[in-house]
Amino acid sequence: MVINMNKENIVEFRDVSIAYPLKKFTLQAVTNASLPLKKGMITALVGESGSGKTTLASSLIQCISEPGKVVGGDIVFNDNGNEIFINKLKDKELRKFRWEKVSMVFQAAQSALNPVMKVKDHFIETMNQHGMKKVTMEEKEAKIKKLLNFVKLDVDRVMDSYPHELSGGMKQRVMIAFALLLDPEVIILDEPTTALDVITQYFIFTLLKKINKEMGISMLLMTHDISVVAKFADYVAVMYGGRIMEYGDVHYIFKNRYHPYTRGLIGATPSILGSTKDIEAIEGNPPNLLDLPKGCIFNPRCKYCQKICQEQEPESLSIDNMSKGKCHFYKEI
Amino acid sequence: MENTAPLMSLKKVNMYFKKPGSVLKDSNIHVLRDIDLDIYPGEIVALVGESGCGKTTLGKIITGLYRPTKGDIFFNGENVSGLFNKKINSFNQVQFIQQDGYAALNPVRTIYQSLYAPIKTHNKKLKKAEIDKKIDELMNLVGLIPAEQFLIKYPHQLSGGQRQRILMARAISLEPKLIVADEPVSMIDVSLRLSLLNLMKDLNKKLNMSFVYISHDLSTTRYIAESGRVVVMYLGEIIETGKIGDVIANPRHPYTRALIQAVPIPDPDYKANEDLPLKSMELGNIEHRHIGCGFCNRCPYFEDICTQKVNYVHTETSDVLCNNLNKVPTGAVYKTYNK
Questions:
Q1: B50 and A199 in contact by Cβ < 8 A?
Q2: Which of A46, A320, B33, B273 lies most in the core, judged by the most C-beta atoms within 10 Å?
Q3: Model confidence over B92-136: pLDDT tens digits?
């Protein structure tokens, strides 16, 4: 199946399924997920834990944790008009592709840095691995300084520090500088502020927004926090039980809330503004991926559930038609 | 509420932690400074602040897990700060709910055993059948129905939200007057978070228990403590306290203003936001702070006098620890507050 890539998209997930074959059973973490990442935009992937958002995003750099693998569909990267099929890359090509085209800021910056290496050595090691061995130390250090300066860190102190000497927010900024090292075109952000408090979170996002605007780097943000999405993202995809339920422009999604799950999520988020009376919880528990309900997987928690929802699963979104929403009664509720 | 006597009151509570590797008394870290706090019966008090501001330490002092270095704690008018360890053990009027439900439950005990033990320890005369009945009631109260199905399970077989409910059931099993909840929903999924907050609100109303809710998330804080009080902490000090609605509508301390402005609003129309009114994003160092106001190095309204002394000012809406209130802007941080 050949689909010509939309020029606006830098990455397309086409009908991707990812499974973890285990001893007794196979866990289907992502099922027929399609998602475009628009060039120069921030796309947010919202979902609860276990919804498959990290699995889907890590397929973009083929870093799905063992024994998971892509069992269907393609992940395509737009390299100036040439399509790169990421899931078909050989190991050697993949090593070049990672970090030079797509880099990632991991969830726990605390454990993403090597505790026995100085901050600057992390940078130098990666540069050496990516064909910059012959560059002089001064040039390398100048580049590191520029990056650390950009994320507003105290360069002289941080360069020669070990990770434990830095605070959580500082480590996260080191990780962001690190992700920028090889001038990637896409950065994956996996819950970049989860363990940080609001003020640090604010600064990190201001910084990321600046990177997005000034360097034109596209971003894929994974989060469970609807407020962060509203503030930061341009496009949003809502994920539930390994499926993309709805995708669209942030303003459009928040205004219309066509999908019952999106509506529930937005409605369940407390805000510091407005009345607290309109806030309503979603009943029930997230689905067990090994024992999915028949029909639409959201039906046991859905307020608008009908007979058809319990029998038939709604059609998945496809890359050509992302605006339909995975619901039998989309736009009717 | 002010007419009734406080359930618990802290008077000039100070806490020092020993600096690792140091033997000198002077180099101890001063983590709580002169905390004065009253908690009234049936009230929800929210403690907010950045990580490292001492809110969990204060929570543990209220629960009796730490003993303050200096200062007094009164519970129902009785001074309990000098109680010996033995007596503190039977001091079951205050309970604590931890952040991580997985770490707080013994992994090799069933839920039934985890709930049975505290009730039996504190009510030695109760028969097994009576305790069973009580456990059943508790499980119903926290919404884990049918109870038998959950009681035989081990913590790892439950979801995060269910574990948090078990912690809540265990905390209320001794019918305490006051519950300290330390970030109880921060590890819980969004769709389950709200039902837990609702449960806490219900318990507060039904059983007239006071809650101390510790969090750095002002949106959930506002939801749970709707009519309660908020206590904003910074580097071991209380910098602003007041009714939560008033403080959010009209924050007076420059730090509170920044904190509220940093909270993301779940509505993309609120995107346009000017920079935070802070000089630096780093939290000050609690080990090397000078006398006077701890917020000096980040405060845009800083004056020389601030490094010398700072006093509480009583305003219409809140009590604020600041010298330059006349320079700090007033009113809501978000201009479209009434939208």
A1: yes
A2: A46
A3: 788 898 887 788 899 999 999 999 998 988 888 889 999 999 999
B262 closest CB neighbour out of A202, A229, A282: A202
Reported ipTM: 0.81
For chain A, the helix, strand and coil percentages under 3-state DSSP, each to the nearest 5: 35, 25, 40
In this complex, the residue of A48, A169, A230 whose CB is nearest that of residue B191 is A48
Residue B35: both structure tokens together: 């905390």
Any B CB within 8 A of A266 CB: yes
Would you call A118 helix, strand, or coil by DSSP? coil
Least CB-CB distance to A286: which of B189, B226, B265?
Answer: B189
Mutate to test the interface with B, among A53, A176, A269 (most CBs of B within 10 A): A269
Substitution target in A198, A210, A297 with the highest count of B β-carbons within 10 Å is: A198
Provide the token pair at A55: 């699995």
Burial class (CB in 10 A: 0-12, 13-18, 19+), A65: exposed
Q: How far apart are CA A238 and CA A44, in angstroms?
A: 8
The reported pTM is 0.84
pLDDT digit string (tens) for B195-248? 888 888 888 988 888 999 998 888 889 988 888 899 999 988 999 999 998 898
Query: In angstroms, rounded to a whole number, what is the distance separating the alpha carbons of residues B122 and B133?
Result: 16
CA angle B4, B6, B12 (to 5 degrees): 140
A181 interface with B at CB cutoff 8 Å: no
Q: Which residue of A has its CA nearest to B244?
A: A272
Q: Which residue is it, tokens 């000098």?
A: B82
- Mark yes or no for CB contact B189/A272 under 8 Å: no
Cβ contact B190–A269 (<8 Å) = yes
Paired strand residues for A235: A43, A249
Dihedral angle over CA of A321, A324, A325, A328, nearest 10: -130
Nearest CA in chain A to B158: A285
3-state secondary structure of A35: strand
Nearest to B192 by CA among B218, B171, B220, B173: B220
Interface contacts A/B by beta carbons within 8 Å: 133
Which pLDDT tens digit goes with each residue over A156-175? 888 999 988 888 888 888 99
Give the nearest partner residue to B263 out of A226, A251, A272, using CB atoms. A272
Q: Mind giving me the DSSP string for B269-301?
A: GG------S-S-SSPPPSTTPPSS-TTGGG-TT
CA triplet A305, A310, A314: central angle to 5 degrees?
85
Dig out the tokens for A289 from the structure: 């991926």
Using CA atoms, how far apart are residues A71 and A32, in angstroms rounded to an integer?
10
The answer to whether A48 contacts chain B (CB < 8 Å) is yes
Residue type at position B124: K
- Determine the Cα–Cα distance for residues B13 and B11; give it in Å rounded to an integer: 5
**What domains sit in chain B, N to C, each tagged with a CATH number?**
8-327 (3.40.50.300)
Alpha carbons A73 and A34: distance in angstroms, whole number:
9
CA–CA gap between residue A129 and residue A126 (Å, rounded): 5
Q: For an interface test with B, which of A252, A256, A273, A289 has the most B Cβ atoms less than 10 Å from its Cβ?
A: A273
Q: Which residues in chain A have Cβ-Cβ distances shorter than 8 Å to B271? A: 230-231
Q: Which two tokens stand for residue A92?
A: 């050697």
